[in-house]
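FAQ
Q: What does a multi-component entry look like?
A: The components come first, one per line:
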Amino acid sequence: MAETSQAHPNRRHRILVAKPGLDGHDRGAKVVVRALTEAGYEVIYTGLHQEPESVAEAALQEDVEAVGLSILSGAHMTLFPAVMELLKQNGMADVLVFGGGIVPQQDIDALKKLGVAEIFTPGTDTAAIVKYLDAYFTAKDAQRKA
Amino acid sequence: MPDFESAKAAYEKAIAKTPERKDALFKTLSGGEVKPLYTPADTQGDDYQKDLGFPGEFPYTRGVHTTMYRGRLWTMRQFAGFGTSTETNKRFHYLLEHGQTGLSVAFDFPTLMGYDSDHNRSRGEVGRCGVAIDSVDDMSDLFDGIPMDQVSTSMTINGPAAMLFAFYIAAAERQGVSSEKLRGTIQNDILKEYHAQNSWLIGPEPSIRIITDIFKYAAKSVPQWNTISISGYHIREAGSTAGQELAFTLADGLCYLDEGVKAGLEIDDFAPRLSFFFDVHIDFFEEIAKFRAARRIWAREVKKRGAKDPKSMLLRTHAQTAGVSLTAQQPENNIVRTAFEALAAVLGGTQSLHTNSYDEALALPSEKAVQIALRTQQIVAHETGVPNVIDPLGGSYFVEALTDRIEAEAYEYFKRIEELGGMFAAIDSGFFRREIAKSSFMQQREIETGRRKIVGVNCFDGEHEDPHAQPLLYIDPKLEEEQKRRVQRTRATRDALKVEAALRKLEEACRGKDQNVMAALVDCARVRVTQGEMCDVCRKVWGEYRKLAAV
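Then the predicted structure of the entire assembly, as tokens:
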């Protein structure tokens, strides 16, 4: 579990956690939302049963820097690319896209080729997700300053 | 009478010298404290005749049947479904050939959510998490070569339960089997969808209207069918404790009972067809106690509501080992977990059981994994000797004390639900979802801080092996295109006038109060209306339900 006491300097960033598709398994998404929130991030959760269009729209409206997609229905090879494409159309190609779910390794490889940054599979510690995002934003902020 | 107080003092003295293990967690999985020793002092409030009774006798704590597994073993029912109906039909034949005794259908998400395979919202989902069924034509293919009067079939379907039940009835007619002969179960438990599982079409009240119409229809036309399987499984998998699972599930059951009576049914005319479905998790004794408490509470509450027929009071249940207890790390360990859980289900007195496959944290199960899962049940049944004695843990001080405790916890929740204004108000306020999320987070924290040990995950994790080296089931993306063509073929080759008339009648039945929606759906199924078309009528009449989506 992520420590909640010390505020990380990077944690002013906005993250969208989304559940695209028809599957209702939201236990993981909710746990991640809570862990990221406790870690100091500003997290927006779309709720269930979103279409890729509404996820991309929410990303734009909420002006987020990262989008986390939770998919446990096996539709990841359709939904990730659809969201990536729509983000690009919205001029948000630089948004970090990561995800979680039951995704086989061969699909993880294929999704990374498409530009998905990371996929967290079952059994991942929420602290690992926080650590990953902290590292990403630290590097991004350093780049911005430079 | 032995002196329990001095035994306790002796334990405390001994433990002062050799302390209890520091890293151990002396709590059940649900967070209940457990004492080092249970004695008759812990069960002295129990009255054997009143609280336990004999198997097959009120309040059925020891089992719903007099002879239990000595007369007949539980039904070994493995949940299966993927791809098209033709693919799943092959898996069904495989399971039946390996000694499985009942079928259980897993549907894909478009089917669960009431969309046809060629709907825009179905893209990427067709046949992924279960089988795609769009019309009676698919249902016929699913049961090709399987005589529908000879198998019992369980269908995990909720929002569109009535539609799939209609397909089943219509497919049986095509085989020349009349509906009176059909045996099986539809899950049809919409309340737990709002609590935890999240596959709903319309809101709670109109959903209950359709459900009571199913009760009425089946009481006359499909009398051997279990019209509902009131499910704790999904509540538990979403992160609840055992006590919450029990309490919320029984509260749901009592709600269906009350709504059926309000709709004009005699309690004894439909209560015997209600069945249950519980999770069986890894905390061995807590799970056994949960099943025993469930039977006792149900029997008492149904009797209180005026039932006369003992069959109305029986809590008959299916059980499934806990999907959430499976780990992606060192997946073979899941075989062991599942075996313990299966044993607990049998000691808890279940009527049927699904054992999970060890690779399910990675993908849908492979054929080999499915076979081991089924063999696990067969080993419990035929090698362990456990089924030879009825409720062999009855009278255990610990198990009886746990049974009492979990029962008391359920009654606490019943009170809280009532204070919130009853089931519908409690759903509306997000009460169930919040309670479950709280417990889920508590458990996650226990694991991540290392307080709760999971072998291969936060201890004994050994070398990092690649779990993806497992041979996994692969769903060919081409199946989606094939299924789209199937539903389009159905629409192209049916009598459009009959379809239109059947859909019009369905809408009338939905809008009115006197016509039975289930009967109208069976007529739709017969003329090959698709499930998306049927569900669209419901969504049109009652509106889509979005309220709880982000809670």
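Q: Is there any commentary attached?
A: Sometimes. For this entry: Chain A touches chain B at residues 1, 21-27, 30-31, 34, 45-49, 51, 73-79, 82, 102, 104-105, 121-123, 125-127 (CB under 8 Å).
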